[in-house]
Fold each of these.
Amino acid sequence: MIFAMLLSAAVSGCDHKKALPPSLTAKATGAALVVVSGDKQLGSPGSQLPQPLILQVNDDQGNAITGAKVQLTGPPGVDFTPQQILTDDNGQATFKVVLAGIDGRYELTASSQDAHGKPLTVMIPEYAAGYQQEVGYEINEKYCSRCHNPDSTSEQVSNYDNLAVKPHRFSDGTIYNNLSETDLTTIISHGGVAMNRSALMPPYGWTLNKAEIQGVIAYIRLVSDPPYVAPGVVYQKP
Amino acid sequence: MQTNNKSSFSSLKTFLCDPFRMFGVVSVLLLLLLTVAPAKDYFSQWRSYQRQYLNLIRNRSNAVTLLRHFQGGIQQIWIPQLGVIDRCQTCHVGVTESSLSDVKEQPFRAHPPIPHKLTEFGCVVCHRGQGAATTVSEAHHSKMAGEEPILPMRYIEASCGQCHHEPLEGTPKLNRGRLLLARYGCVNCHAINLPDGSTIQATDNPPPLTHIADKTTREWIYAWLKDPTSYSASSTMPNFLFSDADASDISAFLIANSTSQPGDSMAYPATASGSASDSSAGAVLYGESFCASCHATQNAAGNLVGGDLGPELTNVGTKVKPGWLMAWLKDPHTYDPTTKMPQYRWTEQQLQTLTAYVASKTDPDFVANVHLQPATQAQIAHGKKLVIEYGCASCHEITGIPKPDNFAPDLSRVGSKPLVQLIFLPGMEQSLPAYLAEKIRRPRAFGPSLHMPKYSFTSSQIEDLTTALLSFTNRSFTLPPNLQIPAVQDTNYRPAGHAGQLMANINCLSCHRINGNGGTMAPDLSWEGSSVQKPWLDAFLKNPNTLRPTLIRRMPKFNLTDSERTVLTNYIMTVYQTPAFERDEMPLSGYSPDLVEKGRQLFYSKYACQSCHMVNPNQDKGYIGPTLTTVGARLNAAWIFHYLKDPQAMRPETIEPNQHMSDEDARALTAFLMAQKTISGQGAK
């Protein structure tokens, strides 16, 4: 009898093992899942991203759908609050995201389902800046972004429109992924002319130190989309 | 059952009575025992990690190199002068292999690049934890007395702050946290002494309360005490969570204790307020005087627009009495000799217009429901007791109440506070960072009798503050003093003489830095006399129109008299000179047309200056840098030359890149720029 009791206790103990949050049931379904805001943010390792991540479920006409289920998944160590949610009156689902303690690019996946049970997914990149990339970000904010980022704010007006030759956003992987470490160091240190490009890109080699230039390059590599793959670290999966 | 047991026991006894058998059994047992230690070692966590590591690197393209670097067994960094014995690399095998920076599985990843070498500082100086331990739980999570667990990554910037007391480019959280400690006056109550002998200085400028009855009403004080943020969201005054009765008593005491200051109130004609034309004239004057450079107001969308050097003015008409406001606008130093607000020289008419306009910014709801009975002596006495008890005089000057010393706990080493000294709330995470964050978020949850007020910080501000607090460690005091990098402290420079009085009166140093003292909103003026031409400076002080059309914050017009302007111009031109060169070493005009033309070409082609600057407004578009359309009438030639050669040497903060120019190029560009005396395309005078 005692044995039976022990056994049942053990079994019920097993039951308690890991209580998954009760799964939400969708009250509606949509035809498309889109990111409203909060993707491609720069955060720091182990911290909550500065802005919430907001997704929206639409029907095939592009109208917002209320009550559709959206859930987030991501690499180990990334934390979401909540993990799943039904879209609100505006068809939106809002999440707080805390990145894991390692710097680098994080690929999150948001998913929902359409009326036929077919999955709707979007990939959402987010970035955690380590010390070096953070230095690069600060340098970019102070020196580079006024020309390289076409968006203006009331505190900082972009100079992009005034340039006869247009630079690129640092996130433009199609441009920057084709520039080697040496190319980037050259053009940043000695200006556009050093690579037979426009003198509108000034030289920074006498203004920034080596660590700062490496920082900018690390930052450019971090936020690159499509992601940057360093040459030489290719390795096969065992 | 029992019989059964007994019989098996007796058979065991007979079995063991044979000495040979006994010997055999004992030796087998001994052998087993002897294998325990090596087996424990063999199956140890770190060996298992090292085996996993070897597996991981086998498939990489540089496997041979990685394998050559690999050393099995316990690895240790020993740095006696820092007290470091770190065995972390025993498990974190690849931490110095930069080619493993793409690895996501811990403990194998390469350490991301930082400006320090592992061999110089080890691991625990930054990450905390128990360096000598060789298991994950002991190394990372020890909570034993005197032992620290590792620091969560989100607070890692705190560790930089143990030596670096100046802001660093790569530590935004730490920098912001320290600014918040100063900005919200935390250090008015909590002393923070740094190992380099300096302290963190408050920057919140709490107003004196000595003459407060001249300025505002008891009702306003009451409502403000109850909830400062409902009056202004940007308030730096925290909420002390006073009961209605306590707030009423404190307001009674402050009014009763206030003395009247001659001149801090003036007769304000009742007829001056209200008319529509007046209010639009007021808005224009408010705009022209660039009040918004320092004061914010909430716009229709609820966003704060304007600077934060002075208080937010969205509802200021609810707070201040019009007579006081007009006297304040006339000369703010009468009421508060240490104010950062300049004395504008407005006419009586302008004063009335502006007073009416500013006083019209109200929120009637704020005091609508405050109905206070006339104060009794008992209330006033109780209010005084509360003012002493809550340390109000730590921040505010209050007649008859001295500033208390060490009012709140010293935080100089709070980042090393042992866990055993902390009292945790039920259900909260038992760690120092969690404790600090919660103390800031909900101070009174830790005990209703505590006096620590509640701020309305966002969670990211709390993370910033916690990071800054965690940087105040025991270790920072025991590290070798030569590692300490002090923050740049303000000097106590004050300009002298008649010009000095004038500059104190219009408070130049509130915005401009001179010789290491003053604000950072506007350009440093230490070398202004070497930089600009005298007639330009005089004209600028008369009518400052901005050089940068995209700036929100601008130099206001102080309406100086001619003689005041002359005093100021002469002083700046003679005193504020750089030792780097002679002001008049190059002529202001007379450069050869060839040289000017050469400069023009350099400007537009080789150096492409037009990407940021405008010389010809009909053709150039850049506006990151100041407009250069009339630069030849503004700047000194020698300044331009030396600035072009090394911009950061002349203005350390400038973003103008150093182009490593030859003297020849710099001279030609100087000639070209000095030729820009009138706006091109509008014809020479």
Note: Residues 143 and 204 of chain A are 9 Å apart (CA to CA).
Amino acid sequence: MSNFLFASIGKKFIMSISGIFLFLFISVHLTVNLLLIFDDSGELFNLGAHFMATNLIIKIVEPILGLGFVVHILWSLVLSYQNFMARPIGYLTKSRSVSSTWASRNMLILGSLVLVFLVIHIINFFWDIKFNPGKLNTVYINGGEIEDTYTLVASLFKASVIYDILYIIGGILLGIHLSHGFWSSFQTLGLNNRNWMKRLQRISYIYAVIIATGFAIIPLYFLIKF
Amino acid sequence: MADKILKKLNIKVWRQNSASEKGRFETYPIENISTGASFLEMMDILNEELINEGKDPVAFDHDCREGICGTCSLYINGRPHGPDTEVTTCQLHMRKFKDGQTITIEPWRAAAFPVIKDLVVERSAFDKILQAGGFVSVNTGGVPDGNAIPVSYDDAEESMDAAACIGCGACVAACKNSSAMLFVSAKVSHLAKLPQGKVEAKRRARSMIAKMDELGFGGCTNTGACEVECPKSISISNIARLNREYLVARFSE
Ligand code: HEM
Ligand code: SF4
Ligand code: FES
């Protein structure tokens, strides 16, 4: 098995499976986040966040998700290192844009920038929600007392233009990463052929645009409205 | 249409005496090249001038000079086989260049394709991959009637498209990861699509990939540059098939 994990297609298999897992997570995450802009009282989002925090399935998936990130990042480094070693002397002139997209050539850079954003994001919200619940106020909804996650998130977006812009950039970077990553993960698994090549690439772009605008629109909404 | 004359060009080319020595770029001016000349004819003219000046001519690979053998190489102005699509370097014409231009010529760059001299690289790595599985094992005996083996039209077409690969190595040269996946996928596909080759498809994919990895080619990240730069437009859908054959083979064990 160990030589599968480090064989060229094996490494790609790991990237692809962890990547698919991450984009499933990202899709759910975005859906919940969008509740932020559909109810300024915050009730909807608080209920959504509370559901996510207490739901058994989510609790089980969470550690796997953490592992998914770690695996995806570690293998991206192994893959990139070995690919780098495959060309010890580079070219003097390159006209790469003729034959491939910028995103496809810069997945490591895009991924790393997403990671930087992710760290900031975890410090902003996840850490307090998860390990520091005392910092959060509570609200009463339908007779039950739950954490006021909405205020935590909304107050950051209302107070700081810099964070708004940072989160918009984060969403766009992730979208660009996925514009290549989405179809690439199917290709890597062998789930592609002549007929599906163009279709998958198109779906990939559409998905990337949805993710990027979805995430960017939330800080944008707070930026414009408040 | 009469061919024009390119009055002056600067040819900036990689010079390296042997595999073990360090290389460097050298620039040679060259005059009065017809736009109707092929790129390799221009190289011949340059070499003749170098010989007349008592210099060492630039070594480059070539054989058929009609786009079918895959021997010619050259990374010209940042692209394998130069600034044209679906052609080999021997089919590239000087009309693709402008008067006064500097043309930079580099060898294929990959750990698995070491430079032997100047622009000539060692491509026997491809032969080794083929020897690892790019064949059909048959017991000799009576030859079956070709018409008795049913092959669908689509399969025959896809197989033939993949079989168009001439083993030039432009895919490796174009790939930012120096991956040989397009080449290997073409060799796996043209056999896997036919009944005779299907039998060993999985074993073939595994052993050829193992060899490819061992020889130091990189891993595919699906940039698709290989397909665009391939003189035979081998489709990356073959890579999807190779991935499929390989993964099924791994997981069925
Ligand atoms: C939410 C975050 C992320 C998602 C949803 C995601 C998703 C994906 C997907 C679907 C792929 C394609 C896999 C394949 O081609 O088989 C991929 C590839 C890749 N990712 Fe990520 N990724 C994320 C974060 C990261 C991070 C943090 C890094 C690096 C630090 C990274 C680096 C890479 C690299 C180097 C590749 C390989 C390029 C390629 O195969 O085309 N990604 N990612
Ligand atoms: S796949 Fe295309 S570029 Fe690669 S060796 Fe074959 S013909 Fe050349
Ligand atoms: S010399 Fe044979 S393909 Fe160019």
Note: The beta strands of chain A are 138-141, 144-147.
